[in-house]
Amino acid sequence: MTAKQSPKTDARALLEEWEAGMRPARIQALRGDLMEATGIYVPHRRTAIDGVWYDHYRGQVTRALREAVEE
Question: Whole-angstrom distance between the N-terminal and C-terminal Cα of the chain?
């Protein structure tokens, strides 16, 4: 998140990108922002993201980002 963006703006941008279909490498690159916006742990390794993590947490991340945008 840049200094010019508010947390709500950042969450909105993350949500739009997430719903458009974020690839594991992009999730890895935005790991800190995703964890800050959602409070959900994101693994360091791309192979872990690509495997069980994405399938298990996809819905939870979507809900958490939507809630962050609404706040």
Answer: 17
Structurally, how many domains does the chain consist of? 1
Tell me, yes or no, whether 51 lies in a domain.
yes
Check: pTM over 0.70? Answer yes or no: yes
- By the 10 Å C-beta count (0-12 exposed, 13-18 middle, 19+ buried), 27 is classed as buried
3-state SS, the chain, equals CCCCCCHHHHHHHHHHHHHHHCCHHHHHHCHHHHHHHHCCCCCCCHHHHHHHHHHHHHHHHHHHHHHHHHC
Yes or no: say if 10 and 34 are a contact pair by the CB < 8 Å rule: no
**pLDDT value, residue 51:** 86
